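Fold this sequence, please.
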Amino acid sequence: MKTKRDNHYDIVIAGGGMIGSSLALALAPLGLRVAIVEVVPRVATSQPSFDDRSTALSRSTQRMFEAMGLWGDILAAATPITHIHVSDRGRFGFAHIDAQEQGVEALGYVVINRVLGGLLQRSLDAVANLDIVCPARIVAAKLGPDEAVVTVDEDGAQRDLTCELLVAADGSNSAVRSMIGITASQVSYEQRAVIGNLLPELPLQNHAYERFTEHGPLAILPVAEGRAGFVWNVQERDAERVLNLGDEDFLAELRATFGNRLGAFSRVGRRASYPLSLSKALRLTAQRAVLVGNSAHGLHPAAAQGFNLGLRDVAALCDCIADSRDDVGDAELLSRYSQWRRADQKKLVRFTDGLVHLFGHSAGPVKSLRNLGMLGFDLIPGVRETFAKHTMGLAGRLPRLSRGVPLT
């Protein structure tokens, strides 16, 4: 029997953003001793995971938060998506998915990251057996057969924490991933996502739009108070010009890209941007260590699936841990997690990457095939239903939490 030590945890989570916080909250019913190590102060508005981006929560994510007892608070701050419209700028083809047709009240929900992040942070305060080591940075990690040792730097003072399982949830540029010897491929799309919100002249009526252009996709999402969140992907070489446009010129160019379906745009909020790349870890586990979220896979936002895919990582890991409570860092447990998650991750990577390259292709024959594909999407029986199931995160083998079933 192991001797209890003040610095020993069942699980240490590197990263206290939306994925790391969600993991700690999901693990709470299991009564494990957990630590989150996060470099950004909890009161800081600079936490990159809690910015002004709008995140579309899939059906499986909704079920997971329901099982965790958080959905009521999230729903109060979220806007439902009842219809998704996909189009290709300058072409006649389009596709759509409707919630009523799929037999659900909503295909998903949109919430501002900052709002969701604040709710998750407040929920952490009520979790027993949870220590939040913040602001602090993991500067070293040593993996062994019986435990992992992480060295934490808190304002220049260093100390070691030991754990049975180390979870890297510190983003696509994960430092912990490198420390535990896992490499990742990273390919730039040479695009930047310009994000913000605005007021459309015509109401969105819970519709979400994805419009593909030769420079990258533009998503318009319904958010609270009649406003619309936008994710406008522009070429890297043009990003600085777009960001420096005055409000009127910016809105005019955005409307020219999107079209007149929502009338005029006004009252644009603060804009921000971030570079877009595809990252894939070459493996998901090491001895007593595992990757979740963007540490394992960083996707293009074209299909708004990155956060939802990360939460399915969390749900699957929690399933494996709940079924193997004796040793949460056991090699067999980690092998089960890796085998479970690989198929879902590869599918989403291929899907989002394929969309970007297909709609970014300017050759005439390819454009014609895209139009036929979109028309076929609406006309061929079963295609739309299959696509909707994947969009809602309901395809394949789902963990308990993703099905709305509590861990205990």
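Residues 8-186+277-403 form a domain with the FAD/NAD(P)-binding domain fold (CATH 3.50.50.60). The first strand starts at residue 8 and ends at 14.
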